[in-house]
Every structure is written in C-alpha cells, then in structure tokens.
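Lecture notes, unit on protein representations.

Consider one protein chain, 88 amino acids long.
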Amino acid sequence: MKYEIFINGGFANVPKQFEGEINLEQTEKKDLLAILSKESKPSGEIHDGFIYHVRITDTDTEIKSIYDEHNLPQLVRAFIETIQQNKE
C-alpha cells in the first residue's frame, strides 16, 4: 500500500511530508481504508493547529482525506505516528 502524508500548520507552520510504501495486516488495512473512505473536512476552528492531508493508494483504489486536530480519527493518528517513527 502506498501513502502520501502532508502535515502543515502549527505555530511555526513548518510542513512535513512523508511518502512511501507500507505493508499492513489485512484487518488493519481494511479498518484504515474504511475510516479514510468517510468524508471529512477540517473544522476551521483551529488557528495554530495542524492539518493532515492523507492519500492512500492500494492496487486500483485511491483515497484522499483531510483532517485537523479535532477530527483526526485515532486509527489514522496511530498510522501517521507509525510512519513518522519509521522515517526518523
């Protein structure tokens, strides 16, 4: 599964970008794709918060989602944290 994650905002507005491929267990991948498939929009109430742009490509499926700190699902947050830890 391929991913692209772009995080911007925050007090200093220093963007971060991650992209690559990751192998997930089938149940974890299914849960993540189900959550990302739901429509989401940043709330607009955050002034110094982060905005998370997530794009996942799995075989012939591409899913794009945008979240902020208020509506970022826990499973997506854990996925992003895993990616960040693997890149450091």
